[in-house]
TrEMBL record:
Residue segments, region Disordered: 1-21
GO biological process: glycerol metabolic process; negative regulation of DNA-templated transcription
Keywords: DNA-binding, Glycerol metabolism, Transcription, Transcription regulation
Organism: Pseudonocardia endophytica
Protein name: Glycerol operon regulatory protein
Lineage, opening ranks: Bacteria, Bacillati, Actinomycetota, Actinomycetes, Pseudonocardiales
Length: 270
């Protein structure tokens, strides 16, 4: 969320910046508040929103009350506000739409590599799988589209966090219980941050049975406008070092192609 360059309004009341040309100021402010809540882990106080947005409390209160009335925000018993269930519905719908255009590219990866291919998005403190192309083998990995998991125990999660802003990573880790799903799961922040350093240096992330024993996964993040990553996964017996070495450049090529496709779609006339 951007911090407003405040300006004085009528009677010296601080009302924040004017809307950009062709936009609606109240909508911009409401979206800014939702993004601020997401960046703070999903639950915030009105005073926190005031401090980060530069808007006066009465304005924030009106916007939050409107969002709550539509289900996009809900009030907690602690007098804090949390992101509401309506956002989950919108996110799921958007995720399915993303899956429609990414699935052909995932199918190409399966054709080249044989193993299941996935795409996941970073939403809040978790990753959500939005598309999959099943592998060619009778024994293959299957990840349900719509499944949400913690970022610390998946290759897609590590790839995404390795590219995220440091403040975003810190916020996610503060709001994540680093539960041990297997003996290989990273469960402390220091070792996990060291792993993210390795991912940045290598340009890809590997899940070494950190979510499920006997499963290996390799992922790369899309270097674009959406926090997304693609991966292939399979049994450890087939996901050899040689296969991973072959998969990494193919994943990078697929990711670059998806970024180009998304940019093209964004510039097409409505």
């Amino acid at each position: 969320m951007r911090k407003a360059d405040t300006e004085s309004g009528v009677n010296g009341v601080v009302e924040g910046p004017p809307a950009r040309s062709g936009t609606v100021q109240s909508v911009e402010r409401a979206v800014d508040l939702l993004e601020a809540m997401a960046e703070a882990g999903g639950t915030v106080s009105l005073s926190h929103l005031a401090a980060t947005s530069g808007l006066p409390l009465p304005t924030i209160h009106r916007l939050v009350r409107t969002l709550a009335g539509r289900g996009y925000v809900r009030q907690q018993s602690s007098r804090e506000y949390a992101l509401g269930p309506r956002l989950v519905q919108l996110g799921d719908t958007a995720g399915r739409l993303v899956g429609l255009w990414v699935r052909p590219k995932l199918a190409e990866l399966v054709e080249e590599l044989g193993e299941s291919a996935n795409m996941a998005l970073l939403e809040g403190t978790q990753v959500v799988y939005v598309a999959q192309a099943p592998g060619r083998h009778s024994m293959r990995m299957f990840t349900e589209v719509g499944r949400r998991v913690s970022a610390h125990c998946t290759a897609v999660g590590k790839a995404l966090l390795a590219l995220a802003e440091p403040e975003r990573v810190s916020e996610i880790l503060r709001n994540t219980d680093m539960v041990a799903h297997t003996e290989n799961t990273f469960t402390d922040e220091a070792s996990f941050r060291a792993e993210l350093d390795r991912v940045r240096a290598a340009g890809y992330a590997i899940d070494e049975g950190e979510q499920e024993l006997g499963v290996r996964c390799v992922a790369v993040a899309l270097d674009g406008t959406i926090p997304a990553a693609i991966s292939i996964s399979g049994p450890t017996t087939r996901m050899t070092d040689d296969l991973i070495a072959s998969a990494v450049p193919r994943l990078h090529a697929a990711a670059a192609s998806l970024v180009d496709e998304l940019a093209r779609r964004d510039t097409e006339p409505a």
